[in-house]
Predict the structure.
Amino acid sequence: MSDRRNERGMTLIEVLVALSILAVALLALAPLFTISVKTNASAHQLTNANTLAREKLEELSGYPRSDTRLKVLDTKNASGPGGAAITGATVGACDPVPGASPARTWCENDLPKWYQPSTGATSYAVTSPGASWFSYPYSRTYTIEQFDGTLTNRIVAPGAYVVKLITVTVRPTIGPFPGLRQTIQSLYLRVRDA
């Protein structure tokens, strides 16, 4: 009998103290889950932006160097996809970059404005085509510059050039960090026998 008297269980106070310590520890860990979800979404966003930029660079590098899609506008030292018709809509013409030195041009987004996740359809319409359409989550711009053999002097079209520099910029427009996780990728295209 004396052995049973020495056995004690936990009191209600001890159980409550232990549970409160566990609750505080779990509450301290909760923000880590939120941060990890945002970080994962941001990494996914950056991966998609890199893929869209690489896709455009590969598309443009496949064209002949004299193709009109790689043409730098006359009297400009850089150009982009100005005025190209896409599915009944027109991508905006190239405009000067405010405050850029030396002056260069950029072109509006060449990605669709809207997409429908259920079907994968896209639209370049200015306003939403319907209730099940969502704003496309990325914008993509690119510039094309011409350089001489030193790669330091830009050539104004239609001057003779040796290298064209294509720079693609992709920015997220929605998501956890819209506009912050942009990617800029460049590619030099050399003229054969130059």
In short: Helices lie at 2-6, 12-61.
